[in-house]
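BUG: 3D viewer hangs when loading the predicted structure for this chain

Environment: internal workstation, default settings.
Expected: structure renders.
Actual: progress bar stalls at 90%.

Input used:
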Amino acid sequence: MHEAYNVEWLLKAPTQVQFECVTAFDDTVLVGSKQGHLLVYNVNPKPGDTKLDVCLLRFNKTFSKKCISQLAAVPELEILISLSDGVISVHTMRVFNFPLVATLDKSKGANLFSLDVKRVTTLTGRTSVMVRMCVSVKRKLQLYYWKKDKFLEFREDISVPDTPRAIEWCDETLVLGFRGEYKLIEISKLKQEDLFPIKPQEPLVTKLSEKTFALGNDCKCILMNTEGVPIQNVPVKWKEAPEAIEYDEPYLIAIENEIVEVKTTDDCTIQQIALPKSSARYICRSKQGRLYVASSAEVWCLHAVPLAQQIRRVLEDKQFELALKLTSISDESEDDKRSNAYHIQNVYAHNLFEQKQFAKSMTEFLKLNTNPYSVIQLYPDLLTKPEMLHAKMCDRDSEKALLALIEYLTEVRQTTVGKSEWMAGESDSKKHNLMQIIDTTLLKCYLLTNDALIAPLLRLNRCHLKETEMMLKKFQKWRELIILYQTNNMHKCALDLLKEQSQVPESPLFGTFHTIMYLQQLGSSHIDLILEHATWVLDQNPEEGLRIFTEDLQEVEHLPRPKVLDFLLKVSPIVAIPYLEHVINVWEDKSETIHNALVQRYREDIVKFFAEEKNAEAEALRAKLLAFLETSNHYNPHMVITYFPMNSLLEERAIMLGRLALHENAISIYMRMLNDVGKAMEYCENVYQKKQEGYKTIYVHLMRMLIDPPNEPHQERLGLNTTPAKPDVEKALLILDQHSNEIPVTGALSVLPDSVPLKRVEKFLHNSLQQMLSERRKSQMLKGLLYAEHLQVQQKRIALQSQSLLLSETKLCPVCKKRFSNQSAFAKYPNGDIVHYSCQDKRK
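Structure tokens produced before the viewer hung:
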């Protein structure tokens, strides 16, 4: 233990005087006695000596008629507050004998008070002081503030369950100690919160800062904040239950039986000072580094050992945290403080590392903003080859060290690099190199501790390429090696590795799945590489390989489709049709080339299946072709019809002839080559419903074909039906009756033979006449409505043209208040107002 304070006996009470309370500020000590006396001492070092010189300045025997229970001084306001005979009194320190200024009559019955003194330095350098006071009167708390030489109440009294034995202000919170418990009261909301019970004893409350305090509990001290939460897990433990506790940063000083014990807030014992045969009860702090301890008859002074001497000693004892705290309160310049603190922290961090407290060490390096390369150098194993590194990672300490380094480097990557002082002014190249070192080191750590974090790190693409490639190969991290190649655009290396590993059953990259996934993400700029490596995938599994070109990904959808189609036709024709169907049906491709290609592929496979006597497959595919020819509007019938044979696939040819508006030829195929009048009628109905070109005369062509079938000698040459067709007038008349409203009269009469009785076409003629009359009536009605509308428009025009207005030079514009000149354009509103044309938008 080092000595933080020197103790010096100061004085003894005058005869028949018993000290009851003590307070101090600067070099002044004020002592109140049980007899009501006030003694004021001045304490200064003797010239050329470390000893203190004590001088009694005042001895006021008439300060109070009763025992002085408590004293508190505010030197900036030159006032002294006392509690005597259960009443709070205010005295001025401007006059020698501290005469009474005011008495708080309402405080009668008080047993305790506490001050909250806030000192604020303004922009002009002037220090203003605000003083608040809490007075305990039985089970009430009275709250006052100082204004214009008197205390005024600033809110109503607060009721508490018992009489407080200890009170302390912490910002806007009152910390109260009762005989059996502690309580917090938030003043603004009057919110009361119980903390914890204690044994029946005198409570001790010691303020540490505006937000923290220490509470005594037998031989322990609990450190808490104003939220009622402990600020550290370990309490401060004393040798015995203290009589009183004071805080002199960074130390807690407690008065125990015949000793004064000095500890840090993290429960480190610093010093034990013996006070032989004393019964010290009081302790107060006058300024940083000086405290006074008093009994009923004596007073001692604790004055701090010079901080420079303390810092040297605690550094020898490797108490680095304490050294940092002492540095922060030294009277050195801010620059010197920062420099010394940096040095201490650096030594502290390295010492923690040597003590194998790796996590704490990394935390200190983060606080110091240390260059990460210097920290990495603490791990020489990470600079060796991977196989050596793997051999050395066998003990638990090494794993803990690596985990701490991982956490440190992760934090550095997120918050430090690019913002640190050691990177200021450095080039982008040096910053990149440092990030490369950090990420490569992280990779080495992950290889030895946590494989799952390797892939996310590699995707950031900042590791050293060659070194990372070597390590991943050594550890056989094939998935991660693929990511490395991918992020560095080394796609050929990645695909070669995928092909190689696809043949290794125990490899995580076995099979075609990973190659397919990789190729899907490359995009059209790598089309040649995609086609090169898709070949072996399609050879092994055509259906799975097709996913390279049909997956629902933007990169796949934007591949050049004609080039892909040519490739599939050469390498794996079996998947050409599924590819074209996907492009048309899913991606809604409307290009003529793709639609023509699908028709052609359908035709070729149908012909092939029929030749191989696979009739079921051929018919299923033919149904697809017929549906596609009917529904698609994007193939070129002029082009694709030339690929179809004349003696087969006649229904498909008929559909394409219909698209070319060659309806007679199409109907001829249905009736003369296929001998299927029903399909011919269905064809005509379809053309009429879709209103295709030539739809108005479609039924006329059907009737002509029934009444006067053409002679087609080439049918016999093609091996089709050679039986001559016979006229079927009755069928033609039936069509005439069924579609009388859809067949033009002139066309029907031109094809009907003269032998047909008039009575047989009476219904058709009647319906046609009724339709013409109806259309004529509609035309007449529309003509009448248009004429009536014309008359209304003319009437409105005449009414508008009959209006006039007089615009003289004396008339003013109501907007701009100017006259209308001869050249002025104007606008007239419905209510009759006339304004300049340019003013119409300004009028409200």
